[in-house]
Fold this protein.
Amino acid sequence: MATLDEARSAKAALREKVTGLDGVIGVGVAPEFTASIGQPPREYPARKQAKPGTSGRSPVEVLSEDELVEQVAGPGGSWVLQVNVTDARLVDKVPEEINDVAVRVRVVGAVRAG
């Protein structure tokens, strides 16, 4: 389990490790959001639904503007590093942990405008 400050500190080291890997499109800090087996997911009051039809797409969850990033993970929440990649073959090339902070890899596809 890593604090937000620990995850932020480890982010620079992770960026150095993935520099040069074609297909890495993002490196960041994210809440771990783990739940116990058999327990319902935690509720996050900082989240609200966007109004349908405002963008021509389905509703999405957004963070309320008045919430601090530190509040997203909840009390005692843990943080991880997240690497977004466009190709699943990159998953094995990203370290699972760096500076004692877990690394999560998400295959998200290419980012395109409009």
